[in-house]
Every structure is written in structure tokens, then in C-alpha cells.
Write a structure and sequence with these properties.
Elements: H1 2-26, H2 28-40, H3 46-94, H4 98-103, H5 106-149, H6 151-158, H7 160-198, H8 200-205, H9 209-262, H10 269-305
Helix pairs in contact: 1-3, 1-5, 2-3, 2-10, 3-5, 5-6, 5-10, 6-9, 7-9, 7-10, 9-10
Length: about 300
């Protein structure tokens, strides 16, 4: 187990480094786009324009190759280490006393342990690397670039984080309350079912079958309504970050940038295009953080439902 932990730690560092390189590579094309528009084209620097276009086209290809290799090796490692841990768990279970198997479902335990192990390794290697790199380093760099190009537009981008995070947090708190009620109602249903079958002779003697079934059906209908509300709130949080907030801030950035160009306040057309490209990356990074958060919350909800 210590060997697996050591391997996981090493690959985690390598994963962060590789993902960081990929993020740096994606920051290059928007820069060349602005330089080509503001400098090379007006001054008719044909050779520089060609080089800029080649870089602009080839860099995304390099990113795709790096991303493909990154996904291949991380998924391969996740499965390999998950299987190794599953084998170790099996070894521990198979040598248990016979009495252990009388009171425990060994197949269910093995299956659950395998899923949880693979999920944990996947989270540590892939999702955490994206979260740390996107949420901290890459986002900070993009904000820094925006502030250098134009402080006003850079400050506008800082507002995107609270504009997305606070409403989503409020929505998820509402979802948490609804999930808690689902848990409570599930407990009531299980209790009703248990009471029914434990006292099945009494239920049959008094012909209470329909009443007991109806009681459970009423609780199930109430839970279905709650799940509908939970799904609507979950969808609203996703639409808020990926849809409304992104479109709103893109529009605000474009409008402010256009105004600064018209007023000759130190911003050029190429710089505005570069900023819009950087902002698209920045919004996608922040939305990835929110999406990861929501996905893990949804995983918790699925466990509640089960």
C-alpha cells in the first residue's frame, strides 16, 4: 500500500506539471492574434504574419496531442492502481474466517471498494490537477494579462468569480435542504416497509395491505416531487455559470473594450480580440471548478438515492 501511495504522489506531481504546460500553451495563440492584428497587418510584415498564423494553427494541434497523451497515461495508471488495491482488498477478505462471510456480503464489498478506489485515484490525479491549475495558476495568469493590457477590463474579470460562486452556493444550499428531506423521507419509507413485513400476520389479519401500500406510495410521490425540484435547482446552477454569467461578462467585456477603443483610451482592436480569447479560457476554467463541485455533489445525491 505504501508503494502505491508513493507512486500516486509522484504521478500527481507529474500530472500537475504536464497540465500546467498545456495551460501555458493555450495562452500563446491569443497573444499572437493581437500582435498580428495590431502590428503585423498594419505594417505589412508578411513573413511575421505567416509565422503568426502558423503558430496560431499549430499550437492547438500540440495541445490536442499533449491532452491525448495525458489522458491515456492517467487513465491507464488509474485503472492499474485501482486494480492493485482491489487485489489487496480481495487478499484481506479471502483470508477472513468463515463467520465473516455469514454476516457480510463479500461480493458487494469488493465491488464497492473497487469503485471507490478508482474514483479516489481519478479525483486525485485528474480532477485535482485541473482544479489547482485552472483555479489558481492559470486563472491568476489570465487575470494578470488582462490587467496589463487594460486595468479596467482586468478588474471586470475579477467580478466574475463572486458573480458565479455566490449564487451557485445559495442554490446548492437550497439543494442540500431538499436532499436532507429526501433522506428523512427515505428513512420513513424504509421504516414503514420494515414495520409492514415484520407484522405481516397482523396486516393480513386486519386486511391492511392496501393501506400500507398507499402510505408508501404517498411518501414515494412526495420524494419524486423533491427530486424534481432538486434537478431543477441543479440545472439552474449549471445554466447560471455556463450560460448566463459567461454570456453576460463576454458582452460586458466586449462593450467596455469597444468603448475604450472609440475613446482612444489605450486599447486596440487586436488587444480586445486577445482579451476576449483569454476571457473565454478564464470563464471555462472557472466553470470547470463549479462543474466539478456540482458533479461531486451529484455523486453524493446518487448515494442518497441508492
Amino acid at each position: 500500500m505504501e508503494k502505491i501511495k508513493s507512486d500516486l504522489k509522484k504521478l500527481q506531481i507529474i500530472t500537475y506539471f504536464i497540465y500546467l504546460i498545456m495551460q501555458f500553451v493555450t495562452l500563446v495563440p491569443p497573444y499572437f492574434m493581437g500582435v498580428v492584428i495590431d502590428d503585423y497587418i498594419p505594417n505589412k510584415k508578411i513573413s511575421s504574419i505567416v509565422v503568426g498564423i502558423i503558430l496560431f494553427v499549430s499550437i492547438p494541434l500540440v495541445t490536442v496531442i499533449l491532452q491525448t497523451g495525458y489522458n491515456y497515461f492517467t487513465v491507464k495508471f488509474v485503472r492499474k492502481k485501482g486494480n492493485e488495491i482491489a487485489i489487496q482488498i480481495m487478499e484481506k477478505i479471502v483470508y477472513k474466517e468463515v463467520s465473516f462471510f455469514d454476516s457480510n456480503n463479500s461480493m458487494e464489498l469488493l465491488s464497492y471498494s473497487g469503485r471507490e478506489t478508482v474514483g479516489y485515484i481519478n479525483f486525485v490525479l485528474i480532477e485535482l490537477s485541473r482544479l489547482y491549475v485552472c483555479c489558481s495558476i492559470s486563472a491568476i495568469i489570465i487575470i494578470g494579462i488582462s490587467l496589463l493590457i487594460n486595468p479596467i477590463i482586468g478588474l471586470i474579470q475579477l467580478l466574475y468569480i463572486p458573480f458565479v460562486v455566490f449564487p451557485v452556493r445559495f442554490i446548492m444550499r437550497s439543494v442540500s435542504k431538499e436532499v436532507k428531506e429526501v433522506v428523512d423521507r427515505n428513512a420513513v419509507i424504509n421504516q414503514k416497509k420494515g414495520d409492514t413485513f415484520q407484522a405481516i400476520e397482523f396486516v393480513k389479519l386486519n386486511r391492511l395491505e392496501n393501506q400500507r401500500i398507499q402510505d408508501v406510495a404517498i411518501e414515494n410521490n412526495a420524494i419524486n416531487k423533491l427530486w424534481g425540484k432538486i434537478a431543477a435547482l441543479d440545472n439552474l446552477s449549471d445554466l447560471w455559470s455556463n450560460g448566463f454569467a459567461t454570456e453576460l461578462f463576454t458582452g460586458i467585456t466586449f462593450a467596455v473594450g469597444t468603448l475604450l477603443i472609440l475613446l482612444a483610451m489605450g486599447l486596440h482592436v487586436g488587444q480586445l480580440i486577445s482579451i476576449l480569447s483569454y476571457c473565454a479560457l478564464y470563464y471555462s476554467h472557472m466553470n470547470l471548478v463549479v462543474k466539478t463541485w456540482l458533479n461531486h455533489f451529484s455523486c453524493g445525491m446518487s448515494k442518497v438515492d441508492n
